[in-house]
Structure formats: C-alpha cells, structure tokens
Amino acid sequence: MSHPSIAHIRKDYMQASLSEVEVGMEPIAFFQKWFSEADKAAVQEVNAMTLATVDTSSRPHARIVLLKGVDDSGFTFFTNYQSAKSREVDSNPHAALVFFWPELERQVRIEGTISKVTAAESDEYYLVRPRGSRLGAWASPQSEPISSRAVLEENEKKFEAQFEGQEIPRPEHWGGYRLQPNRIEFWQGRPSRMHDRICFEMTDNKEWQKFRLAP
Ligand SMILES: Cc1cc2nc3c(=O)[nH]c(=O)nc-3n(C[C@H](O)[C@H](O)[C@H](O)COP(=O)(O)O)c2cc1C
C-alpha cells in the first residue's frame, strides 16, 4: 500500500531564476559554473549523477555513477568494463546523465554518446585511488550474480595476498568512459511550477543552439 502522505509532499522552489543571457552560449562552461556553485553550497555527493543506458532489447537501465572530470570533450566516469552498463554502452553508445542538486533547486540533463577513455587516462585515475578501492576493482565481478558476500571477501583476501608489498596495477576490465554531449538542459526550480528550462542542442555543423522549454 502506498503511504497516504506521499501525494501531499510538495515544495515550492524559491531560490533563483535562470535567464538566456546568464547561461551564455557555452553549456560546458555553464555546467562548470553550476557545479562549483553546488560544491560551494555543500550539496551532498555533488558529483553523483544518474546514468541511463539502453540494452539490446531497447530497455532502459539507470544507476548512479560519480563524475570524475568534465571539459569540452565531455563527462568522464569510471567503472567495470564487464558490468551491465558497459555491455549496454558497448552495444548502444547513446546515453543520458542527470544531476539533481536539491539544495540549489537545480537539475541538469545531459544526452550524448559514450566511448572509452584511453588506457593512459584510466591508469592515471586508477593510481590515485586508495588501495582498498583498487583492490575492489579486482575483487568484484561487477553486475554478476554471486552466491554470498563471502565470495567477495574471499576474493578481496586473495588479491590482497597476491599484491602484498607491491603497487596494485589497474585490471584491464576497469576504466573510464566519457559521454560527449549533444544536448544539455539546465533546469531551475521556480514558484508555482513555472520553472526555467534552458536547453542546448548541437547542430550538424557542431555549434550549440539554445532554446527555452516550457516547464
Ligand atoms: C553514490 C553512488 C556512487 C556510485 N559510483 C559509481 C561509480 O563511479 N562507478 C560505478 O561503476 N558504480 C558506481 N556506483 C554503483 C552503481 O550505481 C551500480 O550499482 C554499479 O555500477 C552496477 O551497475 P550496472 O550493473 O548497471 O553496471 C555508485 C552508486 C552510488 C549510490
């Protein structure tokens, strides 16, 4: 049974507005501005984003991953290359990302195509991760069914012993992906559901075109 009060949860968004002028013509630069504002506002898990992918039966799947870098080439995250999401991305590179920063009443939706980053980039990030996370990349067959938690813990011990006293190298099955955007929408909550939505789409001649959407 659904909780009777869920339908009554309601919030009016009062903090800010968003104008065409303010957004400018460089959506990545504007994303970076909003990201640093969210970071300054101490948004929880500010770099957590929903990643939506599609499988070979056209079914969508969504989960959170962490943004690890953003520049004009796109939005980077790291994962297991044998995971469900990787199988999906490898068979269909079209994907979407969503950030929700409730403390600022903001959402950013990003759509585009995904490709693997270079091995050198994956190495660079892998080697700054804490040793425990590096071991985890070896120990966890991400997205595979396992019979119990003990399987994971035994794997962890096995690799801990294997790499004792040495640097843990990056497993080939772990690395980065970058989503290169072709659409980015900035959403700012406003009172009475009259929100601001400003959207960018990449034209065929690789220029951003900007328009406002009804909320
Ligand atoms: C806050 C948060 C951050 C996460 N960050 C990552 C990440 O950066 N990379 C990753 O592979 N999984 C991350 N996960 C786990 C994924 O949500 C997911 O469980 C996992 O990647 C397996 O997804 P898949 O089976 O669809 O491939 C995170 C989960 C949460 C809740």
Quaternary class: single chain
Q: Considering DSSP H and I runs of 4 or more, what fraction of the residues is helical?
A: 25-40%
Number of strands: 9
Low-confidence stretches: none
CATH architecture label of the largest domain: Roll
Structural class: alpha+beta
Along the chain, the helix and strand elements come as HHEEEEHEEHHHEEE
Tell me what the structure shows.
By secondary structure, the protein is an alpha+beta fold. The chain folds into two domains: 12-126 and 172-212, Pnp Oxidase, Chain A; 128-169, no CATH class. It is built from six helices and nine strands. Strands 1, 2, 3, 4, 5, 6, 7, 8 and 9 form a nine-stranded antiparallel β-sheet that branches. Helix 5 (131-139) packs across helix 6 (149-162). The longest helix has 14 residues, at 27-40. The model has no long low-confidence stretch (mean pLDDT 96). Bound molecules: flavin mononucleotide (FMN). Flavin mononucleotide (FMN) is lined by residues 45, 48, 61, 63-66, 77-80, 83-85, 142-143.
Topology:
Elements: H1 20-23, H2 27-40, E1 48-54, E2 60-66, E3 69-71, E4 74-80, H3 84-91, E5 94-101, E6 106-116, H4 119-126, H5 131-139, H6 149-162, E7 174-188, E8 196-202, E9 208-212
Antiparallel strand pairs: 1-2, 1-5, 3-4, 4-7, 5-6, 6-7, 7-8, 8-9
Short description:
The chain is an alpha+beta fold and 215 residues long. The protein has 6 helices and 9 strands; from the N terminus they run ααββββαββαααβββ.
